[in-house]
Amino acid sequence: MPVRVGAGCTHDGMELRQARSRLQARGYKPLLRQAAPAISWPVADFGKALGGIVAELPPSANLSYTLRLMIFLGIDPTAGRRPLNYALLDGKLNIVAEGAGQLDDLLQVIAPYPDILCAVDAPLRPNLGLMTDPEVRRQFGLSAKSKTWTHYRVCEFELRRRNIRLYNTPVETDAPSWMQSGWQLYAQLQAAGFAVYPADSASRRLFEAHPHATFTARLGHLPYRKDILEGRMQRQLVLYDEGVQLPDALETLEEITRHHLLRGTLALRGLRAHDELDALATALTAYFAHTRPREITLVGSPVDGQIVIPVAQLKDHYE
Predict the structure, then answer these.
(1) Distance between CA atoms of 309 and 281, rounded to whole angstroms?
(2) In b/e form, how buried is each residue of 214-238, taking b as 16+ CB within 10 angstroms?
(3) Mean pLDDT of 127-139
(4) Are 58 and 97 in contact (CB under 8 A)?
(5) Which segments of the chain belong to CATH 3.30.420?
(6) What's the pLDDT band for 35 if we cut at 50, 70, 90?
(7) In the predicted structure, residue 28 carries a pLDDT above the cut 80
(8) Rounded to whole angstroms, what are the CA distances from 181 to 196, 213, 281, 282?
(9) Cα–Cα distance for residue pair 70/116, rounded to 1 Å
(10) Closest Cα partner for 211 from 82, 49, 76?
């Protein structure tokens, strides 16, 4: 039977199902029963946009389709006057927006986007003491009588034992201010309609990520320190090679000349700061979780928080 899509003409159901699948794979969602303006294309243009998927439909027909763009949001909370860096990517890894500021600033930026998968570089929950449980310790081959690793969440232990270093999360009352700010951020995002991943029915979801782990997993080894030039260039190259629409970091080398160094005019245009790169890496992790779910690993226990890593399987150890 023919199927009616939006306000457009009727076409054979098989072709429309294929078109829907291609749209959804690119980060778009059809709104067939919602009062949002439809986007109408001639079939020839629609087919071109989708790689020719509807090339066999009548050239004179129109398809009307209401599109909602899926956004991948990365947040890197920091200490200081601007408590968070953020980056928004679309389904083609274009940078929709990026910046630094307060949560209110970010909520204004994301207001137009109903469908968002958000990754945050901060512990999702306080330490609930799972690593003190004798049964949990036995699962990892740890002595039930030892206190080693008891100050870590399971996800943090799993990464640290692979030589991916990160802060341990204490119980809530002992947490440093930046961690408590992170929990406030999660609470405010949930109040703004975000559900904890992988809640499939929610249009806005969030999870915990860790950019150092993301870069390590994608490189297959430990990266340079992020606060040095080589580390920034390396991280931007990783993002560039993954398809994020950033300048090639190697172009920065063209600016490193004797003249610029002696004059103190080395600008390094196009090279992102490490906080900006961390925000982009968390956004890329969200992109992987949505578009390539078989290529992610959820590390840890859902009880005290899992960290999403964009790799199908972690190595036992990273050098």
Answers:
(1) 11
(2) bbbbbeeeebeebeeeebbbbbbeb
(3) 94
(4) no
(5) 71-124+172-309
(6) very low
(7) no
(8) 18, 21, 21, 18
(9) 6
(10) 76
CA 132/CA 154 separation, integer angstroms: 10
The CATH architecture assigned to 71-124+172-309 reads 2-Layer Sandwich (3.30)
What is the spatial distance between Cα 119 and Cα 96, in angstroms, rounded to a whole number?
16
Residue with tokens 């994020």: 244
User: For residues 280 and 115, what is the distance between their CA atoms, to the nearest angstrom?
Assistant: 18
Q: 190, 202 in Cβ contact below 8 A?
A: no
Which amino acid belongs to residue 313? Q
Cβ atoms 73, 86 nearer than 8 A? yes
Beta bridge partners of 228: none
Residue 16's alpha-carbon distances to 6, 43, 51, 181, in angstroms, are 12, 11, 14, 46
User: Which residues, including other chains, have CB under 8 Å from residue 196's CB and lie 6 or more apart?
Assistant: 124, 190, 205, 206, 207
For residue 120, give both structure tokens: 């945050």
Identity of the residue numbered 193: G
Average pLDDT of the chain, as a whole number:
82
Per-residue pLDDT tens digits for 145-176: 898 999 999 999 999 999 999 999 988 778 88
Other C-beta atoms within 10 Å of 79: how many? 10
3-state secondary structure 233-269: HHHHHHHHHHCCCCCCHHHHHHHCCHHHHHHCCCCCC
Q: At what angle do helices 274-291 and 211-219 cross, to 10 degrees?
A: 70
> What's the pTM?
0.78
For CA atoms 128, 162, 78, 300, the dihedral sign is: negative
Residue 29 and residue 179: Cα distance in Å, rounded? 35
For 80-105, the pLDDT digits (tens) are 677 899 999 999 999 999 999 999 99
Beta carbons of 299 and 285 less than 8 angstroms apart = no
